[in-house]
Amino acid sequence: MPSMLDAVVVGAGPNGLTAAVELARRGFSVAVFEARDTIGGGARTEELTLPGFRHDPCSAAHPLGINSPAFRALPLERYGLEWLHPQLPMAHPLLDGTAAVLSRSVAETAASFGPRDAGTYRRLVQPFLCRWDTLVRDFMSLPLTALPRDPVTLARFGLAGLPPSTWLMRRFRDERAKTLFAGLVAHVMAPLDGFATGGIGLVFALAAHARGWPVARGGSQAVSDALAAYLKDLGGTVHTDYEVKRLDDLPPARAYVFDTSPTALARIAGLGRYYERYRYGPGVFKLDYALDGPVPWTAQEPRVAGTVQIGADSAEIGTALRAASREGRAPDHPFLITVQPGVVDPTRAPDGKQVFWAYGHVPNGWRGDLTDAVERQLERFAPGFRDRVLARATAGPPELAARNANYVGGDIATGAVSGLQVLLRPKVSLFPYNTPHPAVFICSSATPPGPGVHGMSGHNAAKAVWRRLRQT
Ligand SMILES: Cc1cc2nc3c(=O)[nH]c(=O)nc-3n(C[C@H](O)[C@H](O)[C@H](O)COP(=O)(O)OP(=O)(O)OC[C@H]3O[C@@H](n4cnc5c(N)ncnc54)[C@H](O)[C@@H]3O)c2cc1C
Which of 195, 232, 284, 449 is deepest in the core (most CB within 10 A)? Predict the structure, then answer.
């Protein structure tokens, strides 16, 4: 290691690794320091239950990863990352035994909503879909770290997406489209009537039509391993088992880039109360199952979908979100996001068996056990589910926070995705990746564009760092 590094990155999650890669690609010397004994943060894979069952304890489905301008510009496939596409990106089973679907095809998706909403859906997504690549680049670079390439489409997207999702859902007449769309909004744990929640739902839908919601072959660890392998080829180093508690724990460097929560950063870098107004959101209760076979869904469509949303209708989903985010209680009928990588990746479990991934929302810091409520909910749409369970691993907010300091109180978004914090995080600032300390930067999902495995926060933060390094 040189006596003075150009940059040190704290945390080997997708954003920390992307920031390190972006800097190393531009010729800067970089070292990454990670608290855990393995890299990956929220993109990792482990045998959590039984031998041969490879689970993703955190992220599993990657609509944001495959659509990320940062990832798409990196040669990650050369380093072992392979996106696998299920026949359907997502299905949302309903109590009548049918399902609404999010397909790669707009027409198939619209048809699953029924004749009264098919045209409305097509008219909603088509204008954005044909400009998707520019649009995604523009809004993932927000706030204003670069001038928009297509300000007109971005403004139109803002008009549709900045109001609450409840406004957007009023365009639909039947419950099928409303239910599926409410579920999409719930992926970031935002209450349905929150600011910009319409945009959140639209992004997930457009991502499916543009490039799908794949899983990574072998599990999400493949994303992290590809980033780290590329970094090493570029001359960067990664040090695990190294929890950073003070800036003095780190080697001398011209810049320090933190893939951590703002609160931890303030503590480590001595920034006092700089981030004291930053808010954390609800937590999740995560379950990883080893199953004796596929999930016995009543409807056909979920049997071939990578992701399956569970919530009887938009009202039930809204109630579950409100309970966890506003009322401080666990929902009776939790809204669930589930992923079944086995529909497309046979490497994840022994022959004929499956891994199954699910989580529901709970209040921040909640200490209860949601297992029974989750399984009762699954049994409504897949009767006999419990009979297929060979083993399960559960993690509520305390366990999630213990595994990864970024998940404060079990908040897997590292900060509430509500109010202005949806877009302007971790502070209202044109330079969200900078801090009052001229050599210290933040690159975690507490910065725009927010949670998800896409590396764009790391990419945007790296730009701020290299501008500073070139100035000095
Ligand atoms: C249960 C769950 C399900 C999810 N599902 C999905 C999904 O399907 N799709 C998706 O796109 N996203 C999903 N996410 C969200 C996604 O994982 C995160 O948004 C993403 O990982 C954030 O990346 P990051 O690099 O900002 O932080 P993280 O991935 O959290 O990485 C931060 C890293 O920093 C390390 N660190 C923290 N403090 C220190 C310190 N003081 N010293 C050294 N190291 C430190 C941590 O150990 C960690 O490795 C999920 C998350 C969870 C937990």
Answer: 284
